[in-house]
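Run log, item B.
One chain of 248 residues. Sequence copied directly from the ordering sheet:
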Amino acid sequence: MLALSVLIIWRLLYEVSAYSWLVLIPLLVACTAGSYLGVVQSRQAYLDAALTQDTWLRKWLKGRAYAMFTSVVFGFTATLFIGYKALVVTGGEFVLLSLFFAGSVVVYCRQINTLHPHVNARYLPTMSASITLVIAGSISALLYGFYVANETIPGELRNAGFSQIWDFKVHSLPQGTGLIAKFMELFVTIDAIELYAVVHGSTLTSLVAPLYLINSVAVAYVIVRFAAAISEFLRSLFMSKVVQNEQQ
């Protein structure tokens, strides 16, 4: 609900202010921090097992730089992608993507509870996220692929060139200003390439199926990992609160 509220506010402010991107910062922080917590713990557990106790490498190999880099890259990309989808989706797709997110949160929390008695605590977030990605990601990719494959293509685009399709996609995006609008246009270009391949399927038959597959898997992957990262961030906050209360 918190993530949905942030995205609704973002959508309302996007056309009003060039600083609407500030609304996405809580999601960016939560996603990046949640991803970092999972990666750094498993990375440190791996290094503890791989390195001897007295090696000088322990001073340098902490696993933090790798975890920070991958988490920042994913957090930034995923937040922009989710923000873009919040601007352009309508009706059925909005409901479908919301269900993917909610379902991924449920599966992740379920895996945390199921694996907790059996898995080392430092591997718990990463292993839970991986299983969630397999279960929720597979279902989400199949359903989203089916939905996209059955979308109706507007009649005026059936013989359109790439520039016309790109213009159509740009006009379907709310008019934003500032640097954030340029980032949104990058995703518009990706959507336009996919739609162009679908519209010209008779001449680009070999590209249509792979593009559908790549698009469905990418959307499912980002949403599921995004949900898992935010869930881990909130779980860590809750656990830290519990520990503080127990110490008082």
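Observations after the first pass:
- The radius of gyration is 21 Å.
- Helices lie at 2-13, 25-50, 64-88, 91-115, 124-149, 162-172, 179-199, 205-247.
Flagged for discussion on Thursday.
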